[in-house]
Amino acid sequence: MHTTSVPYSAASCRIRSPYPAPAPGEAEASGAEAAPESAGPGEPTGGEAVEPSSNAPQTSAPRRRLRDKQLRERRVHPRYNDDEFELVQKAAALSRMKPGGYVAECALAAARADDPTAAVADYRTMVKTLMAANRQLGGIGNNLNQLTWHLNKEGSWPHPDTVQRLLDRVETSIAAVDTAVAQITEAR
To answer: Taking the CA of residue 55 as centre, how many other CA atoms within 13 Å lie in the half-sphere pointing to its CB?
Structure first.
């Protein structure tokens, strides 16, 4: 890309021409004149160098997604509730990106990983495990109801220590599932 250095420019970068540089001698052969070296509206009027203000805090410019040579025509439209969108906005701000670019980069990073399912697999695995545990606890609850019905029908408890161990195990299982549910809901 053709760049020209502009003297007395207020900016510290070069101005890039959107057109490719002509081959040497091509401009003279075509009769085109060279553009005058002027900085345009950003040029200082006094002739002396402009010092940046030391009172203004130095902040870096927001990052943008890298441009692709081809136009990106395929779109995905994710939807978020207010809490999820707030999380995306905070994460994007920490990355100094706009939310759309941040979501796109995250999705592509997950898709390009060696195991694309790994990014979402942890959450899905936890949900499947909790569903299985819930199903098992439902079966245990059904068995406890049947046991209680039989014990109350007969009027005597044949093995009270066995029943107490069973109840302790059920309470431990319920506590473990409750802990797992709390961890998942806090992580989201």
So the answer is: 0
